[in-house]
Amino acid sequence: MSSDLSIPSSIRRFVTGESPAMLIDGAHVPAVSGETFETLNPATGELLAHLPAADTPDVDRAVAAARRAFEDGPWATMKPFDRQRIMMRFADLVEANHEDLAILDTLDMGAPIQRMRGNLRRAVGMARFYAGLTTALRGETIANSIPGDFQTQTLREPVGVVGAIIPWNNPHIAFIWKVGAAIAAGCTVVLKPAEEASLSALWLGEMLLEAGLPNGVVNVVTGFGETAGAALSAHPGVDKIAFTGSTATGQAIVRAASSTLKRVTLELGGKSPNIVFKDADLDLAVPGAAMAAFINSGQVCSAGTRLFVERDIYDDFVSAMSAYSQSLTVGNGLDATTQLGPLVSQTQLERVTSYFAIGRAEGAAVSSGGERLVEGDFASGYYVAPTIFTDVHNEMRVATEEIFGPVVSVMAFDDYESVVRLANASPFGLGGGVWTNDLNKANRTVKALRTGTVWVNCYGQMDPAVPFGGYRMSGYGREGGVQHLDEFLETKAVWIQTH
Ligand code: ADP
Ligand code: MG
Question: pLDDT for 12-44, tens place per residue?
């Protein structure tokens, strides 16, 4: 498990045990309390950095800076072209530094470097897409029917100060996704990265400043969810929370946000169904279904973790998928041959391995994996084998609860009606997959699934221009696509009497 990569000088200050500062109002600052917390490399358990542990006073400072930047300009009054120029410069910086950003995120949260490098197109593409949207803000002129001469129109205005709370599973992508749309709309931001992986957010915040973003437009506050995150969600100076994370935390955020009725978008968890019909191209469907669940070691909100396979092909499918899973290379993400890295933390390791016991106790069979990996170098990191549970029922905990590890629960089905019913029998509705060569069946299934995304004969593709989000308990709102801007805009109706 040796790593091929040495640490580039650009990121050394983040990963050699030092104390990188937070970014508030364009300045590098420690926490008001002086407290720090440790962030570790999940591949080795080694210390990377001590990060400022922000709490209410730090959030107060950051929100005040964002409020000043919103109200006093120049961001809110800048012309779209000028905002766009800054955001395009930011995109160039992301592009120029992407290899080092990829290494930083791999060190911080464990994902394979190959996967992180593969984010280049999307990371830069998103930054440019949102830069483009700065010039796409528009309202309407509406014909009204009241007596007299009244002209009616709508203005779209930025919602104000945004609290952005992001998870650790794809850190630099999550940052660009959240911040890009918010600032394109003219908002200002206080971003809190996840405590497990905050480093790239600090660097990206610096890149925004280097690109010319005015001080205070984007502030980065590091700290725990229960303290810094909770303070941001309840803060009366925050107009909107844009959150990605677990459903339980989403519910806590809605409760906290209700005190001031701030706007909320939520991109939450899932237990996404993936349906393989017997007429599917199995050469595609076997690895496709495995990676739908295992990619990023299963730490993906839209992972296809409930796999429904038509009974006629069930046994063959399970053995082919088990063989494929056992061929996957698990290891340190810095190794270019690694396909699955460690889990992000000891907490996640305990959570995921607890489901190995839960599934067995519920009567599911394990056809592959089902254990922590502890041999040799694995012992100091948080590694588990990709795991396939078979003989699962849709009511078992391994089929209803989001595990957020490389674990798939496989169920056999007999007909179209029953599989659609089972697929929709979940409180979540984020992703879904269908594998078939029958176009009509594919289309019917696409319409029948109550999920925000359906992939047909593929799984997990994402693009800046395509909206993403959940039905039901997977969240509110859509991110990506032109409509993402709407999440950061208010609509003002204007009546003008003319004569
Ligand atoms: P996980 O279970 O993987 O930690 P979370 O939903 O808890 O997922 O974390 C996602 C993000 O939400 C992180 O940035 C985390 O710090 C933050 N967070 C956690 N708890 C809260 C909370 N009560 N209020 C606001 N943010 C929170
Ligand atoms: Mg948490």
Answer: 999 998 899 999 999 999 999 999 999 999 999
246 neighbors 475 (Cβ within 8 angstroms)? no
Q: Which atom of ligand 1 is nearest to the CA of 249?
A: 6
Instruction: Report if pTM > 0.90.
Output: yes
Alpha carbon distance 444, 13 (integer Å): 53
Domain ranges of the chain: 9-268+475-493, 273-463
The fold of 9-268+475-493 is Aldehyde Dehydrogenase; Chain A, domain 1 (3.40.605)
pLDDT, averaged across the chain: 97
Look at residue 175 and give its three-state secondary structure: helix
Count of CB atoms situated within 10 Å of the CB of 258? 12
Distance 437 CA to ligand 1 centre (A): 40
**What's the angle, vertex CA 117, arms to CA 387 and CA 474, rounded to 5?**
55
Q: How far is the CA of 68 from the centre of ligand 1 (A)?
A: 27
Active site residue 310: no
What would be the CATH architecture of the domain defined by 273-463? 3-Layer(aba) Sandwich (3.40)
Q: For residue 276, what pLDDT is reported?
A: 99
The alpha-carbon radius of gyration of the chain (Å, integer) is: 23
Tell me whether residue 301 is one of the annotated catalytic residues. Answer: yes
Q: How many angstroms separate the alpha carbon of residue 105 from the centre of ligand 2?
A: 18
Out of 267, 402, 479, 487, which one is annotated catalytic?
267
